[in-house]
Write a structure and sequence with these properties.
By secondary structure, the chain is an all-alpha fold. It has a domain of 91 residues. The protein has 21 helices and two strands. A two-stranded antiparallel sheet has the order 1-2. A hairpin with a 4-residue loop joins strand 1 and strand 2.
């Protein structure tokens, strides 16, 4: 065995590995020793965040996943055999299972591999166990405990357990502010994550305020081209985009992408996220479908998203959630260009894969089904579209995302498309009812009734007037 001091990685000759794994005369206790050696070797080959973020290191970590799973399974099997041996021993031997610093370190490092490969349930389990140990030994206000809490909230965010993630982040941020102040690096990290979680919940006012102020501190501390600064720029752009501040959002998206490309490289996963956001911002155009400028912008976005998908498929694999997200965005762009049949097939096939890997109520699944229902409407398959919309507008679906007394933007998106579906079928009464429901829900979005200032409201009110006139005309015709 040897260690590369530059990367912190260990390696073991494959003959030694085979001997350890297959030597038949090895006792259970000897196997337990070598199993722990293997686990320690694997764990210390994985650097704790934020270190080890290069493309090569990320690729090397992902390749460790089958080895980690194998050695953990071996450890479970060995534990069972050791327990059986203790029960048969006379006198009986009672050895309490211990969990200490070594096990916590292994859990943290292994969880990074699980999280980066999309195995979020395993990642969460390991992170919660390590956080519980550190908090008990050092206190929840210790920097390591706060850092572990942030690590866990990133996983919760990926699982769209937004409510729990937000609660943890609020608590962690308050601890950081009380201990180190508003501009400490750890406080800034917590604030950026909290702002992102609030954005996902639809609390856009608070998210905008946090990201705007946080970005000032990050620029002073790290400069304009640092990855953390650029990520904060991208997060701020997302809030602007939700408010339909399209020009400002596009400007910030481009700054984030160009900075990431220069700092991290064109194919780095963070750069690809920024490129994806920039490409999808072109869907804001609602001009005539024959407008040459709109057609070209969508065609360019489609080419960009194909590039993102190819890179993610190569690096992350075909069934990774981010690879599937790229497929969904390609389908959205195709539909916007009138290629509804091709788009519907892509989303249907993508959903079949996603259902094997992602919880049915995951935010990504909800978005995919909403877009699927919209495309089914374009294809005139109204029955299938309506069946989907009825599940998507159920408030219970968004319980883990929205505040108890509020609503969620993704539900409003589903309502918006549902109204269009109903209107296309001439179901004006129900379309009017759902439009009114949309306005009521909009008031609960954004914090402090800020949703009523959203740029979408005038268009929905115009639609309500138009639908009311059609309903009145139908009622008048029926009465005569």
């Amino acid at each position: 065995m040897r260690q590369d001091r530059a990367t912190g990685q260990y390696s073991m000759h494959r003959m030694v590995h085979q001997w350890v794994r297959e030597r038949p005369e090895m006792s259970t206790s000897h196997q337990a020793l070598w199993c722990q050696v293997s686990m320690t070797t694997l764990a210390w080959s994985i650097r704790r965040p934020p270190h080890g973020d290069t493309a090569d290191e990320s690729r090397a970590r992902r390749e460790l996943l089958p080895h980690i799973r194998h050695v953990r399974k071996c450890q479970d099997d060995i534990k069972k055999r050791l327990e059986e041996n203790r029960k048969e021993a006379k006198p009986k031997i009672l050895v309490p299972e211990s969990y200490g610093r070594l096990q916590a370190e292994q859990d943290v490092r292994f969880s990074r591999v699980y999280a980066e490969t999309g195995h979020l349930i395993e990642a969460r389990e390991l992170q919660e166990r390590a956080l519980g140990f550190v908090s008990m030994r050092l206190g929840s206000d210790h920097p390591l405990a706060i850092w572990l809490s942030l690590f866990l909230t990133k996983t919760l965010w990926e699982m769209t357990e937004i409510e729990e993630a937000t609660q943890r982040q609020r608590k962690a941020r308050q601890l950081c502010v009380n201990t180190w102040g508003e501009d400490h690096p750890l406080t800034l990290d917590v604030t950026d994550l909290l702002g992102s979680a609030l954005y996902m919940k639809g609390r856009w006012d608070e998210a905008m305020s946090l990201h705007t102020e946080n970005l000032k501190h990050l620029r002073r501390l790290y400069g304009e081209k640092h990855e953390k600064t650029l990520r904060s720029v991208r997060n701020l752009a997302r809030v602007h985009f939700r408010w339909f501040d399209y020009d400002e959002a596009a400007r910030l998206y481009r700054i984030a992408w160009e900075g990431m490309r220069e700092t991290l490289g064109e194919t780095h996963l963070e750069t690809l996220v920024s490129f994806e956001d920039l490409a999808m911002s072109n869907l804001r155009y609602e001009a005539d479908g024959n407008d040459p400028l709109r057609t070209e912008s969508l065609a360019q976005s489609l080419r960009d998203m194909v590039f993102v998908h190819e890179q993610r498929k190569e690096v992350l694999g075909e069934e990774n959630p981010y690879t599937l997200l790229a497929i969904l965005h390609i389908a959205r762009l195709k539909s916007a260009m009138g290629q509804h049949e091709s788009a519907e097939q892509m989303i249907r096939e993508g959903l079949e894969v996603a259902e094997r890997n992602v919880d049915e109520k995951h935010m990504g699944m909800t978005m995919a089904k909403t877009i699927h229902a919209e495309i089914l409407t374009h294809l005139g398959r109204f029955g299938a579209a309506e069946a989907l919309f009825h599940t998507l507008i159920d408030k219970r679906r968004y319980a883990q995302l929205a505040d108890e007394d509020g609503d969620h933007p993704d539900r409003l998106t589903a309502l918006w498309f549902f109204v269009k579906c109903l209107e296309k079928q001439g179901k004006y009464c129900e379309a009017l009812e759902r439009s009114t429901e949309f306005v009521t829900a909009l008031a609960a979005i954004g914090g402090q009734s800020r949703g009523m200032k959203h740029k979408v409201l005038p268009e929905m009110r115009s639609r309500i007037v138009r639908l009311s006139e059609k309903v009145a005309a139908i009622e008048a015709g029926a009465s005569s």
